[in-house]
Write a structure and sequence with these properties.
Layout (H helix, E strand, L loop, with lengths): L7 E4 L6 E4 L24 E4 L2 H13 L4
Antiparallel strand pairs: 1-2, 1-3
Length: 68
């Protein structure tokens, strides 16, 4: 049985850009991963586990997105 990935944060140490990813299944979509920072173009993207508040905010944004 597939197990969903745990939420994680992609963050650029150069400009502090970040994206919280909360996968809905065991697969990532192309929009869930970046190779290069959209803010400054750096390729040194760090990945870390998401904190509870970050997950809550990301889920709220996902819930709002279809309504906008």
């Amino acid at each position: 049985m597939p197990i969903p990935m745990r939420p994680f944060v992609l963050q650029c140490p150069a400009c502090q850009w970040r994206r919280t990813v909360v996968p809905r299944s065991d697969e990532l979509s192309p929009n869930d991963w970046v190779e290069q920072c959209p803010g400054c173009g750096s390729r040194q993207i760090e990945r870390r586990p998401a904190k509870e508040l970050e997950v809550l905010v990301a889920r709220f944004k996902q819930w709002l997105a279809p309504r906008l």
